[in-house]
């Protein structure tokens, strides 16, 4: 995890230098030309997103489903340049079924079960990703989070050194910005995946989110580990867990600007930081906030979204060995396009 600052300088620019944050993400993704698989060809929003991604050059798209059915149901959508694959009839089915069997035979899966399971679009997409035939996967528009993450955990698995998969939200302030955000954005984690964390898991979430802030936001991360205590101002087991997570994260990434435990105001308000954490290089200037558990994270991002007018992009998964992201079932086609662009940037 070394080299956070030196690596981000190689990006050569901040994400806010041209256009809106979302548009800049799309432009940076277009430079990569990654191949992203969309698993839900039966959903019109996904098909619309596939069209936009290809026409705007954001990514190469593989759409999974029955080609005849997809085209018949979406005759007004131009799918030129979109590769459509039917998992059930694909020439790759046997190869992917063997791969799945090898991955799951220790868990009792038979070859017959593997072949049947590989026909499932999300499993097929995950196998494409595992085999190196795609750079990233996006699913979940019409399937549950469990249906998306299960193939990810069983096939893609976690990245080397990661103890768990986590998620983040990229929070973008309303027009005019926010006086506490020097980078005009802030990253919240974990707001959508893990209900509770061990100290090691929370540390890994912090490191993964710092990496995401670099890759997606193009910013030098300054990570605050949040609590209801600042630098020992309160005593509780919940505070101790965050303090231990800070210790572990600093051991793993000593050059990363990370500090805690910090209360929310101490993390982002310089005047408060000067009182509560005067020796901290992160306090008062944090651009990555790590919440101590899912309750706090989920409540926090929705308060920012509903009362503060922030745009919440995500949750975006991190910690998988290869990029795999889950959508909200209430998503719009534009949300899917954004998820594709972010997935492409994760495929470094």
What can you see in these coordinates?
- The protein has 348 residues and is an alpha/beta fold.
- It contains 14 helices and eleven strands.
- Strand 7 (222-226), helix 10 and strand 8 form a beta-alpha-beta unit.
- Helix 3 (44-55) crosses helix 14, helix 5 packs across helix 6 and helix 5 crosses helix 7.
What keyword list fits this structure?
348 residues; alpha/beta; Rossmann fold; 6-stranded mixed beta sheet; 5-stranded parallel beta sheet; 14 helices
What would you report as the Rg, rounded to the nearest angstrom?
21 Å
What average pLDDT do the residues reach? 91
Helix percent reads: 40-55%
Task: Name the helix and strand elements from N-terminus to C-terminus, one letter apiece.
Answer: HHEHEHEHHHEHEEHEHEHHEHEEH
CATH architecture of the largest domain: 3-Layer(aba) Sandwich
> Looking at CATH, which topology of the largest domain would you report?
Rossmann fold
Question: How many angstroms does the end-to-end distance come to?
Answer: 15 Å
What percent of residues are in strands? 5-15%
Structural classification: alpha/beta
Number of domains: 2
Largest sheet: 6 strands, mixed
């Amino acid at each position: 995890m070394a080299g956070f600052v030196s690596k981000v300088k190689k990006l050569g620019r901040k994400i806010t230098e041209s256009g809106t944050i979302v548009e800049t993400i799309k432009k940076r993704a277009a430079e990569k030309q990654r191949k992203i698989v969309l698993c839900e060809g039966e959903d019109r929003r996904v098909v619309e997103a596939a069209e936009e991604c290809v026409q705007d050059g954001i990514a190469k798209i593989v759409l999974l489903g029955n080609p005849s059915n997809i085209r018949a149901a979406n005759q007004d959508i131009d799918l030129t340049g979109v590769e459509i694959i039917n998992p059930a009839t694909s020439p790759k089915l046997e190869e992917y079924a063997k791969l799945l069997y090898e991955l799951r035979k220790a868990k009792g899966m038979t070859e017959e079960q593997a072949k049947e399971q590989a026909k499932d679009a999300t499993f097929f997409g995950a196998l494409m990703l595992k085999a190196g035939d795609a750079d990233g996967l996006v699913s979940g528009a019409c399937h549950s989070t469990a249906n998306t993450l299960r193939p990810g955990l069983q096939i893609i698995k976690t990245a080397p050194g990661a103890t768990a998969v986590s998620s983040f939200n990229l929070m973008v302030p309303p027009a005019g910005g926010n006086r506490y955000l020097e980078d005009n954005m802030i990253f919240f984690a974990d707001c959508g995946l893990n209900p509770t964390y061990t100290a090691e898991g929370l540390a890994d979430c912090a490191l993964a989110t710092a990496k995401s802030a670099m890759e997606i936001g193009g910013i030098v991360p300054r990570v605050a580990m949040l609590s209801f205590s600042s630098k020992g101002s309160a005593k509780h087991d919940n505070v101790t867990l965050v303090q231990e997570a800070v210790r572990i994260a600093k051991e793993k990434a000593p050059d990363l600007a990370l500090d805690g435990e910090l209360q929310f105001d101490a993390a982002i308000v310089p005047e408060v930081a000067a009182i509560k954490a005067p020796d901290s290089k992160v306090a008062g200037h944090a651009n990555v906030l790590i919440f101590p558990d899912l309750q706090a994270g989920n409540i926090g991002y929705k308060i920012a979204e509903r009362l503060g007018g922030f745009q919440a992009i995500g949750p975006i998964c991190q910690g998988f060995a290869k990029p795999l992201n889950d959508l909200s079932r209430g998503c719009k086609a534009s949300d899917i396009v954004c998820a594709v662009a972010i997935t492409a940037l994760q495929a470094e």
